[in-house]
Amino acid sequence: MNTIADIINPLIEKNNFSGVISIKRNAEIIFESTSGFADRSNKVPINLGTRFGIASGTKFFTALAIGKLLEAGKLSLDSKVFDIIQYDFPFYSKEITIEHLLTHTSGMPDYYDEDAVDNFDNFFVAIPWYNLREPKDYFPVFPQEDMKFQPGERRLCIISRHYP
Fold first, then answer.
1. Are the CB atoms for 87 and 71 separated by under 8 Å?
2. Which of 34, 57, 126, 154 sits 20 to 30 Å CA-CA off 8?
3. pLDDT in tens, 61-102
4. Which H or E run includes 31?
5. Would you place residue 109 in the very low, low, confident or very high pLDDT band (cuts 50, 70, 90)?
6. Are 73 and 48 within 8 A, CB to CB?
7. Known catalytic residues?
């Protein structure tokens, strides 16, 4: 009789799978496996505790969390971001609100500026991705450059040119 490992491990190799597989039955772990690198260029292997960057995939969860804070009365759409975040962003307007962030109308430049990046496969930031674990770790990644426009002036285009 084949075990789960007998079935899954050849598929991992055949498909050059990079990631974590965890299978549970009634809260009991019956199979776990890791394969590949969390950071390919530095050959940092994936482990069971690896946190994966999913970029724009987090937007929904961020909006949901903000919605819960709004519902609880801990924030409002008019809350000024820099009244909440204690980090010096000298180039960014102190008038940016939660609503501006949620509606992509803040005018803040994007660390992944598609107008400035030619080779999307080799995109990197100065801090290794595996060191970006908490929200505060991302602050130094934000571009130290002027705003694209003033908050609320217009919407930043968030449709990617390089993905179908």
1. no
2. 57
3. 889 999 999 999 999 999 999 999 988 899 999 999 999 999
4. strand 28-35
5. confident
6. no
7. 56
